[in-house]
Amino acid sequence: MPNLPDELHKDLRINSYGHYLRRRFGCRVSKVNVDAGFTCPNRDGSKGVGGCIYCNNVSFSPKDTQSLIPLEEQLAAGMAYHRTRLGSEKFIVYFQKYTNTYASVDSLADLYRRALNHPNVLGISVGTRPDALSDGTLELLTEIARTHYVCLELGLQSMDDAILFRINRGHTLAEFLATVQRAAGRGFDVCTHLIYGFPGEHPEEFLKTADLIASLPIDSIKLHQLHAVEGTELAEMYRRGEFVPLSLRDYVTTAADFLERLPARVTVQRLYGSAPLAISIAPRWGLKNNQMWYAVLNELRRRGTWQGCRVK
Ligand code: SF4
Q1: Structural Rg of the chain based on CA atoms
Q2: What is the mean pLDDT of the chain?
Q3: Which amino acids bring their CB within 6 angstroms of ligand 1?
Q4: Domain at 17-303, CATH homologous superfamily
Q5: What pTM did the predictor assign?
Q6: What sections of 29-104 are H helices per DSSP?
Q7: What pLDDT, on the 0 to 100 scale, is given for residue 65?
Q8: Are 88 and 29 in contact (CB under 8 A)?
């Protein structure tokens, strides 16, 4: 058995986010998704229209989170679910759907405080775009982080500006880098969302993203394969033969390569994206989330490697 860095879970060989939360808070912690009724500046015309070519928010919104349901009710249902299913004792409220900083600072302060107003809630996780974070919102998150856990989740998806343009992200790598620097050193975690498998993307190019993350003050990542769901431009591209999905083997291999180049200090929150069967187009691997985790982790075990073993 190799001598693994302290941050890594000895069996998993990676720094899983669940393991990190348990180390940090001393108990089982779950994220509870809520839908606070936001929209996105890349859909309503202020940054762009149509949104990212793969975006259909239904695909990453569990069915019990709908903006019409009051936040407190969403939270109660989510906490009960995780308590029963996983035995979780404490919770992080995850503002997930669309762009969760796309409102006035006063509205955000009210919303975030409502989420924190429960004794079993340790903090919040806020998903957003690099170009939708005002100085006032950063100050608000900084202030909340003095008393609660805060994770800012920034979508990058690809570090290649040509890909960002082709997928209609509406921002550049430079904008992402500037926002990471503005968010760094404020006492909260910064997480980056990445996707692998864009048309024309070469694995070696994608793997440079791990080197980029290693060079930045980023604490956590989420990675998933590009997948097409109904109601998106990507689904139409798939039907026209312009998007050829990765094979499961290619994804698992490249995800393991990526983890080997990702520093052990960076926590891993996700390795797979799934969508409800009714809207899932391609690829349709039929795996559950934990099955994908173990496919990637078993690949590391088979190689005798671990997260960060090939950090340059
Ligand atoms: S930034 Fe997020 S919510 Fe907005 S269009 Fe892209 S994927 Fe959808």
Answers
A1: 19
A2: 95
A3: 40, 42-43, 51-52, 55, 98-99, 129, 155
A4: Aldolase class I (3.20.20.70)
A5: 0.95
A6: 71-86
A7: 47
A8: yes
